[in-house]
Design brief:
It contains nine helices and six strands. The chain is 48% helix and 19% strand.
């Protein structure tokens, strides 16, 4: 049985939320449409109703703005995010010698690949991207497990370990043999 590492990107492999960091520096919330999507998401979360749709709208708006950035600014953000690499998590994952490492995140797929270039020998990435003709579903919560099943239908036949910063990844933790929460204090194994 092969050992698979599923690892979140934001606040886990890097010590920040990648798209939120860029959003703050680019003042995307000054955009009326993204601000409105953010307010809707806030209220949907508070009311525990319609959160998935609101989250999709907000993330889709962020990605549209990210894709409009000039390449030299993206390069600058990639370098800034590389400087925030969580070496404790990276070192632990490398030491475990997993058969496969899959980064699964609500960040942008190519941004993740660029930030992690040269960090691991080989990784797979399951993350957000805007593809023509494909319904956008943000890679968050239970959607991460659905995306994993699309990407790797036989995932249940493997020994899975999860690294994340948030209990919103509980659906991933539920399919794992071992799960780790990453925080400022370090890496802590959790049992469900």
């Amino acid at each position: 049985m092969s050992r698979i590492c599923l690892v979140d990107f934001d606040d886990t492999l890097i010590r920040t939320d990648s798209l939120k960091s860029i959003m703050d520096l680019e003042y995307w919330l000054c955009s009326p449409s993204l601000f409105a999507a953010g307010v809707k998401l806030f209220f949907c979360r508070a009311l525990h109703k319609g959160e998935a749709g609101a989250r999709n709208s907000f993330k889709k708006g962020m990605l549209r703005r990210y894709y409009e950035l000039p390449e030299e600014r993206v390069d600058s953000y990639v370098e800034s995010l590389k400087a925030k690499l969580n070496t404790e998590v990276v070192d632990k994952i490398k030491a475990e010698n997993y058969d496969r490492i899959i980064v699964i995140s609500a960040s942008e797929e190519n941004l993740i690949r660029r930030v992690l270039e040269g960090v691991f020998d080989e990784i797979d990435v399951i993350a957000n991207s805007l593809e023509e003709g494909v319904e956008f579903r943000t890679c968050y919560g239970a959607e991460k497990v659905r995306r994993l099943a699309e990407f790797m239908p036989d995932y249940s036949e493997h020994d899975i370990e999860v690294y994340t910063d948030s209990m919103s990844d509980r659906p991933l933790m539920e399919i794992a043999g071992h799960s780790y929460i990453v925080s400022e204090e370090g890496i802590t194994e959790v049992t469900l």
